[in-house]
Amino acid sequence: ICLRCFALVLQDAVKIPGHKHPLLVYYNYRGQCSACGKDFFCPYRCKDCNIHLCLWCVLRPIRVRHKCDKHLLTLTYDNINDYAKYHYCDICEKERDPKKWFYYCETCDTSAHVDCVLGEYPLIKLGSIYNEGEHPHPLTFVKKFPYYPECVECGKLCEDLSLECAEPGCNYNTHWKCRKSAILW
């Protein structure tokens, strides 16, 4: 767990921009995140507004830059474009659930799914080094192109985020998802 996440977990209350009340941690509470819709355990919650947030949504950046717009996009949970009959993501062009949070540019009226803006792995930098106890050499985060090596964990081709050993003669390649699940269990 990173230092930022760890520090947040230790707090009993957090304040997020644009929300007037602090969000309190409710231990042993299960529910659904108001921002992303995923099920969670132990959320940050505002009883007054009936908002429940998972840790990942509390950690989301408020403003981000993306190639879909020349301005900064702002994380939004208001129904800014309620006047629209349809809610679409300007990146993937699929329908967007107006009840879920999204990134928005007020100047250009650009709106996009959070995952389309941040990507599936927003906190992982390609090329960064990952050390773990089970493999004797440092591993590098990569997305393989033009060839895809076979994952040592599941045997499928590593077409997504993967870990690669750059040590000469070592052909260790594994999906990040396979490695992550092996670490957690």
Automatic annotation (TrEMBL):
Residues 68-117 form the DC1 domain. Pfam families: C1_2 (PF03107). SUPFAM superfamilies: Cysteine-rich domain. Coiled coil: none annotated. InterPro entries: C1-like_sf, DC1, Vacuole_Formation_Reg. It comes from the Eukaryota. Keywords: Repeat. This is DC1 domain-containing protein. It comes from Gossypium trilobum. The lineage of its organism: Eukaryota, Viridiplantae, Streptophyta, Embryophyta, Tracheophyta.
